[in-house]
Design goal:
The protein is mainly β and 280 residues long. The protein has 2 helices and 23 strands. InterPro entries: KduI, KduI/IolB_isomerase, KduI_N, RmlC-like_jellyroll, RmlC_Cupin_sf.
Length: 280
């Protein structure tokens, strides 16, 4: 099979307080998204959000529907966001072809689309990172190149969090129902990815970490502000962050990550912030 998936059910803060390290990782860490020659999905019960990866080699990989969706087509009632974090590739949506270099995105609106992922070279394959959320309307598919993104420069070297936020699939760039995605890259010498830490009570968020050098890692902080936990994350792994959890992270070297969100609010700044002095 070229498509596999697993289901993750929603977990509350009371249950999470009792988890040991392995139980936290089993519940919130996505550690096998990028598998050569496969499409892999996690069907999450946080906002019915899905997170996945596609790594085509010599042959294209179709976006196949899943038993859990109960539909004849994956995108029939869902919108899909694609960001390439690997070698050059392309995505076909029906008869339209979209070439995606590293750091470029594609929004696929809801509809009966035949979608296939390709790598230009199997020796340096594309790594397509995928997010999907239920859609109440169908909006046009659109490629978002590097020059199309809104770019925010935040942080400073003094606080070790100088970074560029590339808003790719966000309503000021492309119309969506609820899916929002972007890419944040830290400057050399900066390691903190999000400060102040914050929660999104009205939506979930998933952090996908990549471009982490070999033998390096990111410590991702989660949990309630007064009851924090942490997960050590390796390259091309993701953390599912429920609405009750903070999220921020610190790496042993610079890196990049993709954030993806879905919920009832499309306002990028809709968050409840917690300065470091309030965290426990």
């Amino acid at each position: 099979m070229t498509t596999e998936y697993e289901t993750r059910y929603a977990i509350g803060q009371r249950e999470a307080k009792q988890y040991d390290t392995q139980e936290l990782r089993d519940a919130f860490l996505a550690d096998k998204l990028m598998q050569p020659g496969k499409v892999y999905w996690i069907y999450s019960h946080y906002e019915r959000f899905m997170v996945g990866g596609a790594v085509p080699l010599e042959q294209g990989l179709p976006l196949e529907t899943l038993d859990a969706l109960k539909s004849n087509c994956f995108s029939a009632r869902r919108e899909v966001g694609v960001i390439n974090v690997g070698g050059p590739g392309k995505v076909t949506v029906n008869d339209t072809e979209y070439a995606l270099d590293k750091g470029e995105a594609l929004y696929i609106g809801a509809g009966d689309y035949a979608v296939t992922f390709y790598s230009d070279n199997a020796d340096t394959p594309a790594h397509f990172y995928l997010n999907s959320a239920p859609a109440h309307a169908s909006y046009p598919c659109k490629k978002v190149g590097k020059d199309d993104a809104n770019v925010l420069h935040l942080g400073s070297p003094e606080t070790a969090n100088e970074r560029d936020i590339h808003q790719l699939i966000i309503n000021s760039v492309v119309q969506t129902c609820q899916l929002q995605m972007g890419l944040t890259r830290l400057y050399p010498g900066s390691v903190w990815n999000t400060m102040p830490a914050h929660q999104h009570d009205r939506r979930n968020e998933v952090y996908f970490y990549f471009d982490i050098a070999e033998q390096q890692a990111v410590c991702h902080f989660m949990g309630e502000p007064k009851e924090t936990r942490h997960l050590f994350v390796q390259n091309e792994q993701a953390v599912l962050s429920p609405p009750w959890s903070i999220h921020c992270g610190c790496g042993t070297s610079s890196y990049a990550f993709i954030w993806g969100m879905a919920g009832e609010n499309l306002d990028y700044d809709d968050m409840d912030k917690f300065p470091a002095s309030e965290l426990r």
